[in-house]
Amino acid sequence: MTGVLTCAEHLEWIAAALERADLTAVQRATATARVARARERMADAELHVAVLGETSSGKSTLLNAFLKQRLLPSSARVTTRTTLTIRYGPTAQVTDGAAVSAASGGHGALKGTLDRLLTGDAADEVRDLTLSWPSALLGEGVTITDTPGFSVDDAGHRARAVAAAERADLVLVVVPAVAAMSSALADFLAGPLHDHHDRCAFVLTKIDLVDEAERADVLDATVRRLRELGIADPMVFPCVPESVLRTVADPDAGQTFSQVEADLVMLTNERRQSAIAATLSGLLAELLQAVEQAALRRGERLAEAEREIARLVVPDLRAFLENWSQEAISAGRRAINVALEAASRPRFAADLETRLRTAVNRDSVTTGAKMAKVAVETMRTRLRAEAERILSTAGADANAVLRTSATDLADEFADQFRRLARLAGDERVPEIPAAIGATRVPVPDLDGADDTLTAVGSRLSSSAALRTSGGAAIGAAAGSVLFPFPLVGTALGALVGGMLGAPGVTAMRTRFVAEASPVLADARSAVAALVRAAVDRLFVDYTGRVDGVCRRYLRDWSGEIEDLAAREAAARAVLAEEIACAAATAKDARERREQINRLRAAMSRRPVRIGAGETAS
């Protein structure tokens, strides 16, 4: 902002700034009303004087002196919150604005009407009265507003006094010389009237009731106390309004009342622009507060949006899915490994040997052929059943983990999608299709198990450990005929042949178990290798299902996520721009308020010739 602007230019800037400002409904309504009042004030050619004073301060006497008639009742008798506006009119008339009624006539009729409306039974229903009166002071263009005494214990009285002061070009504060500067008056000046000191003038009434030798001291004390309250150059007019009503002049009591009237009219004209500037300053203060609050709110929203977007991963959908994929694969690997560990537990090997020993030691097993047969059945049944159980458990656990992971992904995606949508100004809730859930991982079979067992059996049957005699070859041939399962038939047949001719069933069983244990161990190792290979295939299939879920999300949601992320970034950019604009508006408002306050200060520097400045010096 450059140069010195007029009050009208400031007001139009304020009105435009209020339109742009982020205000609450109450703030906007209040500010709009004040702008409208300011426009009315600037367009109003009348000069407005507000008269304030404590009860029994001589306020009613002062007003009656302006009117040159005893029309208004004593303030001690007024107990309402009525505001009386006195303006020039060619004929005497009282209008009750609330009831839209009027009374006119001679002095007695008007005085009776005012008494009734201000002190009678109807007083509590009256809020605003207008008195039109052809007075020498109240020439065309001058209006006086009288308010209830502000020292009474009634917040409504004080509120109406403050409202009148805010609208006035000049605030005329009545101070009785016999009780100058009471604590109630000091509190009122330091509080509600603090921002209107530059438009305050003080009428020191009842000065004739003070001893002539003490009048100068009373005036000096009054001026000194006003300065202590922050009024650097107070304008004090000592006078005797009662003298006008008695048609008796007391020149030693202070200025003549006619001179006071003339000075007040002059002062009102001088303070008009200051009053308008005060209104604008108040509007700017409200605007500044509203703009700063709005900027603070927006700053908090921007900071929260930035914190929230930092907590979200879904805007980078690939990274979001990669994080999930790694966690899902790790969880699946852990579940599969737990199942696989069962294949290498020592207790399983011990259990297999125990089962073999139990089967061979049955009473019905008394020959080598029977021992070989039960050994084959035990090894085949137990090894395959255990291998299938391990694979089945690994597959079930992998599917459970994948199902849970896919559900968690859907929940987390939906939550982050909603949060991102809110940041982008979109309140949609995504519906995740069930098809995005993972498909079941099939359990691999044990293809090649029989061939592996056969190869192990052939290797073992030809080993030196089993070929203990020529009977081994015969036994191996016989075993492969008797037992169709190749590995077990060949290996155990060789064991039977090696034991031909051995004395005693018990010794035969002991030797058979001792010779068969290494065969069983090799068979178990071979099957374990097959299981590990099958588990590896299962894990590869599992990771493929995880990748499939990720591909589905990328296919179905990439476009929407990118759109929301772009809109969210744009929303944050708008917030940042609004904050910058609010900061610029606040800066401009401060500069304007400083300029207006300088204007008010310049306006308040009155010429020494006015009023009691001479008397007080």
UniProtKB/TrEMBL annotation:
It is found in: Membrane. The keyword Membrane applies. Residues 49-207 form the Dynamin N-terminal domain. GO terms for molecular function: GTP binding; GTPase activity. Its main location: membrane. InterPro entries: Dynamin, Dynamin_N, Mitofusin_fam, P-loop_NTPase. GO terms for biological process: mitochondrial fusion. Keywords: GTP-binding, Hydrolase, Membrane, Nucleotide-binding. GO terms for cellular component: membrane. PANTHER family: SARCALUMENIN, TRANSMEMBRANE GTPASE FZO1. This is Uncharacterized protein DUF1269.
